[in-house]
Write a structure and sequence with these properties.
DUF1540 domain-containing protein, binds iron/sulfur cluster, 0% helix, DUF1540, globular, three-stranded mixed beta sheet
């Protein structure tokens, strides 16, 4: 079994109402980005319960194949930032391939 340990870090997430967020950081083990045509955070969970974990999340998977950082459905960026874009919660590091 191969265990991934080299995931890009979620360097910052400004979405404080998410259950995985505290101190502007994401503390899930790994998040998934991309649903539909926008780079939404699929792991976003609007809940009053907040994790007590101190770990920093990695990007486990990303469905945005049109992002320049996407390689074979994984993120190859050094790190990403997540935040609000209009009403949605999105990867702000998303960069459309030209
Ligand atoms: S990156 Fe996603 S799962 Fe993590 S705190 Fe932000 S919205 Fe929540
Ligand atoms: S930077 Fe691109 S490949 Fe990485 S998580 Fe964001 S949208 Fe996906």
């Amino acid at each position: 079994m191969i265990i991934a340990t080299d995931m890009p870090e979620v360097a910052r997430c400004a979405v404080n109402q998410c259950a995985f967020n505290s101190d502007d950081a994401c503390h899930a083990r790994a998040i998934t980005i991309g649903e539909g045509s926008d780079p939404d955070c699929d792991t976003f969970f609007d809940n009053s319960h907040h994790t007590h974990s101190s770990r920093t999340a990695g990007v486990g998977a990303c469905k945005m194949t049109d992002c320049s950082h996407n390689e074979d459905l994984e993120c190859s960026a050094e790190s990403i930032q997540v935040g609000k874009s209009g009403d949605s919660v999105e990867c702000l590091t998303y960069n459309t391939r030209h």
